[in-house]
Amino acid sequence: MDFSIDPSTLKRIQRMDDLGREHMRPLGLEADRLGRPTPPDHPYFEKLVGMGFGRTRYRGPETDNKTAKNHEPSGKAEKKIGRSRSTLLVSEQMSYWDRGVAVSAPGPGLGEGAIISMGTEEQKARYLSPFIELDKPRWGAFAMTEPAAGSDVAGIQTRAIKDGNDWILIGNKSFSGNSSRSDFILVWATVDTALGRDGHRAFIVEHGFPGLQDFHIEKKMGLKAYESTSFRLEECRVPGENLLGGESYYETRQGFKGAMATFNATRPLIAAMAVGIGRSALDETLAFARENQMLDDPRVRDRLERVARKLRMARLLCLKAAWLADHQLPNIVEASMSKAVAPTAAFEAASLGMELLGLSGARGDHIVEKLFRDVKAMDIVEGTGQIQRIAMARKLVDLPSR
């Protein structure tokens, strides 16, 4: 496995440092102080669009069809190596400066992967083409979590009822990133709760659809720069062509597997973001310890080294999971492992910082205190650490993945 950083990715990381130092960290501190997300009309988002951010991986039907042909099992076509490692490293560096600001950036969002892998050609063209060359900051959103269904995504209660050629969605969604400002939301629902995972369906819901309402931006303890939104689907009418993948896709019982494939691809990314926050906490703690003559104490040095070692281990786990994804190899265990380990290591880094800062941390005016609040969410989003350990344990004893 090659974990070396290619020159192109290294250049992107260096560009992130410039952007992070000049814009991301100040914006993150401002949002934290004001207790609200960065507004969608902020000049920072225009700057990102001008720099080429927010684009989709989708390149249009012609390119998409060529890519599909290259993946046919003919024995002649070369297997295309993905870019997960590069994306992971850049995301880690963005989160080093501010994870909330990083997640607030324009783009098709978490739903992009599901639309690319599960959507019809018409759906991909309609909803992802605007993100090929952005004319302005645009967002897409993903809505799986509900007030009573978080890590147990199989327990979603939002109902999907067929009505002629349309579908009627009834239910509530929560903690959907950037959904109030997005062009579309990929909403997961069930046709019958008794069917469990086999009842899952995904719908591309546009802003302006009747019944999509009551958007509410949640107040969070950390990561305040991006919006986590709750909303209601009150008999929301969705055209039949907005059922992701069409009727035939779900006849093969792929709906839940499609959602899980999305998470297997993004969990190492979230884990790497936690590593970025942890590295930032470690660097800020080291700076404080050095300024206050704490590094002569061997106990302090030992604990700092322990944190650095755990963060490095977590990063390597993330890179392994991403390498497997890049080579189209199963990565369920590795994705869960990275997600279980990285947030814990990052939380330990921030906790040590708070301990060494003492009263300076308790005042709430040091960045380590903000990072301490920011990092807690990383153990929750995309499946909690407990859920990851359940997934790994099931694999260990040869139980089927759920």
Topology:
Elements: H1 7-34, H2 43-50, H3 61-70, H4 84-103, H5 111-118, H6 121-128, E1 140-143, E2 159-163, E3 166-177, E4 184-190, E5 200-206, E6 212-217, E7 228-239, H7 247-251, H8 255-291, H9 298-326, H10 332-357, H11 359-362, H12 367-375, H13 385-396
Parallel strand pairs: 1-4
Antiparallel strand pairs: 2-3, 3-7, 4-5, 6-7
Helix pairs in contact: 1-4, 4-8, 4-9, 5-8, 8-9, 8-10, 8-12, 9-10, 10-12, 10-13
Please provide a written account of the structure.
- With 402 residues, this protein is α+β, with helices and mostly antiparallel strands.
- It folds into three domains: 7-107, Butyryl-Coa Dehydrogenase, subunit A, domain 1 (Orthogonal Bundle), CATH 1.10.540; 140-251, Butyryl-CoA Dehydrogenase, subunit A, domain 2 (Beta Barrel); 255-396, Butyryl-CoA Dehydrogenase, subunit A, domain 3.
- 51% of the residues lie in helices and 13% in strands.
- The chain is built from 13 helices and seven strands.
- The strands form two sheets. A four-stranded antiparallel sheet has the order 2-3-7-6, with no helix packed on it. The chain has a three-stranded mixed sheet with strand order 1-4-5, with no helix packed on it.
- Strand 2 and strand 3 (166-177) form a beta hairpin.
- Helix 9 runs antiparallel to helix 10.
- It is globular and about 75 Å long.
- 47% of the residues are buried.
